[in-house]
């Protein structure tokens, strides 16, 4: 797994907007996330645990490969190719299409690259911006779906709703109760 040849210096702009080289920190953070997961391997057959074990020896080469991909703006097609697996849902008849949940297994090295890119995007948006809106929960550090649900619940069960006004505007009391009930089911 040799990294592709380096991009010639003449084609590379070395200004503040240039893409920073891959760092060991980027790779270590991405590999650490692999440690926490026990997932099935993708088409290459290499589970995440193998990448964790090999990261010491392969780290510099993998870092060079990821840096070259960033410099060229390329995400290798092979890393986008997945293996479709159907997982049967319990209690459903085997001959029913709704009895199966499709899962696409991807190569772990592609997931590593995605994590490096996602971390860099989050750092850029938080650091040099433009930062994301306060109400943005996806792709934000220390924010989750649970946080978003809690914010909606706070808006719909707060003082404004208790007084009969607030975020529902001209919605009828019956509709307000239905919406609150739906939120409680979350």
Automatic annotation (TrEMBL):
InterPro entries: DNA/RNA_pol_sf. Residues 1-23 are annotated as: Disordered. GO terms for biological process: DNA biosynthetic process. This is Reverse transcriptase domain-containing protein.
